[in-house]
Every structure is written in C-alpha cells, then in structure tokens.
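Predict the 3D structure for this chain.
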Amino acid sequence: MKTHLFALGFACALGFSMTWNPAAAQAVGVPIESDEMLTEDAPLVAQATTLKQTGKLLGIKQVAAALKSPKPAPLVLPAPATRRLEPRVLAALGRKALVRVGWFYLEKGTKQWHVNLADGYAITTDGAVATCHHCVAPEEQEMKEGFLIASDASGNVLPVTAVLAQDKEMDVAILRVPGGDFTPLPLNDQTAPGDTVYVFSDPMSAVGYFTSGLLNRFFWLNGKPSTNAVSLEGARNLRIHVSADWAPGSSGAALIDVCGNAIGHVSVIDPLVSDDLPKPQEKPVKPGKKSPKMPPQPIDHSVLIILHEAVSARGVRMLAQSMQAPTPSPAEAQ
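Done. Predicted structure below.
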C-alpha cells in the first residue's frame, strides 16, 4: 500500500494526468463475473420461467424416470489434446466448456421460485454434458416443484432434453443440452500424481472462480479395491484427490489438465479430522447445493486438511463409450 501511495503522489507532483479507466483492470475481452448468487439471479429465473411456460423443461417425475431409463445415444468424443496451453488460455477454455446444471424450483413452504445450479462440462460438440449424478437426482434436492435446467457461462438458460447415461455409484450423469455454444473438453485418463490440475467452477457465490493445484493420488472408493481399472466396473470406484480448491456449488466442474483436457470432475469435499481432537460432522459434503453467505465461523482445529475428491475421466469416458452401438460380428454383417 505504501508503494502505491508513493507512486501516485510522485506522479501528481510531477504534473502527470492520472485518468482512471476501469477497462484497464483486465486484459481485453476478459469477462467480469457477477458476485450475485445464482439462486437469486433474476434474469436466470425469468428465462427459466419462460421455458417452463412453453413446456420445454423436464419436471421432477420426468427426470426421475429418465434416470431409471436413460436414452443412450452414440457420442463422438474428441481426441485428447497434446499441446500445452497457458493458464489464462485454460481459464478461458474452462469458461467456454462450463455448463451449469441444476434445478429451477419452488421452495417448500413458499411461493418463490429459485435456481439451484451446480456445474458440468461439455464433452461433445452436439451438446452431451457430463455432471454429477447427485446434482441431477430429484431426491437429492429440497423442493416442492422443480424443473431441470442448464445455463452457459454467459447466463443463457437452456433446457435439458434427455438423460443419455447415468451411474449413481460413480456419481456421473451424461445429459443432452442442445442449443448451447459450448466448447467440449476431451477426456484424458493418462494422468499421474504431480500433474497440474485447474478447475473453473462456482464455489458458493464466487461465480467463475479459477483455481489450480496438483493431482495428489488415485484411490478406490469406500474400500472397494479392484484389480481392473480398465473396465467400467473397476473405473466406477476409481477416484482422484487433488489440491485445487472448490466448495459447494462446484460439483460437476471439470478438472482440466495443462493441455485443456478434462481428467475428471468435482464430486466431494471430505474433511480429514485428527483422532486426538474433538471431531466435527464427518459426513462428506457433496458440493452441489448453493448456500447463503454465512458469517465468519469459529475455526475447527480438529480439521487437519480438506480432501478434494473427484471422479476420474476414465469412468466418464467408459460410461460414454458404453452407449456406442455394438460392432456387428462377421456373420451378422453378412
């Protein structure tokens, strides 16, 4: 602060003209995100209301039925990229691939409609979007009436027209969101601890938050070891820990590598608690639901570290590939 004040005083003393230009605070073309919580975003509510009135949205019962009986469709997944990109390019790519997914809902006990959005990411050019199963499942939400919606990073609300595939245990749902101007992220499962990871997501009310960290480790979910991580059954329980930050609202956001591929997506926040100190609530938090801004809370010194758990891109890719039409045998082809 002293350095800045000195520089300003020195310039004025020399008679320099100091003109404030807000646009000079960031590079050309860089968006400035709103700090308003998505749940209270009036334009999103207005757009969702219009889609609801025109019958373009899937309601609670329709989504529940679609999760039980998905409508698979062959997907053309882009090949993983191999050229390293600058972090600012990766941030822009993450924003372009981001598909916010969630519910336009009527709050219980009120007559007020809200939006409750988590994150997802485009995986094909024709609107296939991957996100967390828990962000889509109606039973995970608290609402009297609701409709599944999607939105791009610019705030355009879009209907979700189908569930293509889902795996509750893996915490993955692949949806169809047509009409969006999204840039798909290739799925890359050739990663290792120590690789750099970036996340573009919406933790709490920090919309469009870009963070980085390292891939910490691979592990099996809930003590379900497998000897075969190259099958869908094995990959279903494969998880990643990373040191990039996220919070409630980030669920489903892509983990992006240095070449702009998705290596997985955000799933769970799990506090690692000391055995020698009083323990807080230990149940892992699924960071899909928005929460109001909270006043500062006392620090719980029994929490030693926050583990950030993600679904591996290998499972997402295998689930997507499971929708491909089977190759006919030579006898069937004749």
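The chain has two domains: 38-82+97-176, 196-291+301-321.
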